[in-house]
Amino acid sequence: MNLHVPVRIGSFQARGNLFLAPVAGYSDAAFRSVCADQGCDLAFTEMVSSEALTRGHLKTEVLLAREDNEPDYAVQLFGSDPGVMARAAEIVAERWKPAVIDVNCGCPVPKIVKAGSGSALMRDPGRIRAIVAAMSAAVDVPVTVKIRLGWDDSSINYLEAAAAAVEGGAAAVTLHARTRERGYAGTADRPAFYRLAAAVPVPVFASGDLFSAAAAVDILSGGSEGAPAVAGVMFARGAMGDPFIFARARAALEGLPEPAIGDSARLAAARRHLELSLRHYGERTACVEFRKQACAYLKGMQGGAELRRRAVACSTAEDYAGFFDAWERAIPGGGVS
Q1: Which of residues 253, 285, 320 is at a domain's end?
Q2: DSSP letter at 150?
Q3: Given a cut of 70, is residue 224 above it in pLDDT?
Q4: d(Cα 219, Cα 177) in Å, to the nearest integer?
Q5: Which of 140, 202, 154, 153 is nearest to 174 (CA)?
Q6: Residue 195 forms part of a structural domain
Q7: Position 227 confidence tier, pLDDT thresholds 50, 70, 90
Q8: In the structure, what pLDDT confidence band is assigned to residue 223 with cuts at 50, 70 and 90?
């Protein structure tokens, strides 16, 4: 059975059901492009402030950039004012022409929550409804939402929040199956994906604890629940430093052997990632920002600790050239794998 299938999100049809989540500091154009190379079907931008966007802040420009191998992408906005969110959606739709515009109702970061955005919206499903309704009326682009289980364990209300979003016009719902209080600790409540899929008439996408191709297969096949189908999965931390998770997941969903990813392929992806980052950010910013990306690519590699120490000291493209040369020498067989 082929579980890798297209997904319709309102008027848009994604070519498959393997997505890259919006991850602050990671899912920029450079990384999304590398993931697209490996089979990501639809990638989401980092969350973009609706207030900053409507005020014309320049930082939003780089957050919304995309690469040529991204024919379709999704933009995620955060905010709490329906009018501002609608105006931001209009700006994004007109200038950047995304396939989907997503509403962040799940970010647990304190500065976002204090402003009434992100997972603070889980305490006010009525506001979620109003935001989605305002955005849906403002643009022809499908509007989706990403939610959590609730604010904390005593207020699990994802079914209510999702229903409110759908009433407002949401074309799909992504659930990160943890509460705001838990952040990224503990394990995701996987059965909640199926309960939500049974409760709403739009596609449901699963997020949380997706660190392997097997996890994607288990969720999309219904796991042990035998419940209504989850339409797609969204990789977040599982893709950091490992864009190949999309290639492995796609093969597994199609019933094919998982591709063997050698150390040289990982090195090549990191090199391309930095090259793209340099183009988008300029040398100084790209080189500083890429330190965390380099460390992520080195996870689990023999001798990776020494290379990580070298990576965090890199400040120029020339520094990284030396770092990549050292990485290649550290690969058994001199970089042939």
Answers
A1: 253
A2: B
A3: no
A4: 12
A5: 202
A6: yes
A7: low
A8: low
- Count of beta carbons in the 10 Å neighbourhood of residue 257: 8
**Cα–Cα dist 316/131, whole Å:** 43
Catalytic residue among 105, 107, 287, 314: 107
Encoded tokens for 207: 């997020």
| Catalytic-residue membership of 295 | no
- 175, 162 in Cβ contact below 8 A? yes
Please name the helix (run of DSSP H) or strand (run of DSSP E) that holds residue 168, with its range, or none: helix 158-168
Q: What does the DSSP assignment read for 192-256? A: HHHHHHHH-SS-EEEESS--SHHHHHHHHTTTTTT-SPP-EEEESGGGTT-TTHHHHHHHHHTT-
For the beta carbon of residue 24, count every other beta carbon within 10 angstroms.
15
Whether residue 146 contacts residue 176, with contact meaning beta carbons closer than 8 Å, is answered with yes
The string of pLDDT tens digits covering residues 91-100 is: 999 999 999 9
Residue-range definition of the domain harbouring residue 124: 7-253
Please determine, for residue 336, whether its predicted confidence score (pLDDT) is greater than 50: no
Angle CA 182–184–188, to nearest 5: 80
For 251-281, write each residue's pLDDT tens digit.
Answer: 999 999 989 898 999 999 999 999 999 999 9
User: Would you place residue 161 in the very low, low, confident or very high pLDDT band (cuts 50, 70, 90)?
Assistant: very high
| Together in a domain, 43 and 183 | yes
- 288-321 residues labelled b (16+ CB within 10 A) or e (exposed): ebbbebbbbbbeebeebeebbebbeebeeeeebe
- What integer pLDDT is reported at residue 337 of this predicted model? 38
184 and 73 both lie in a single domain: yes
**Residue 78, SS3?**
strand
Indicate which CATH number applies to the domain containing 275: 1.10.1200
pLDDT averaged over the chain? 94
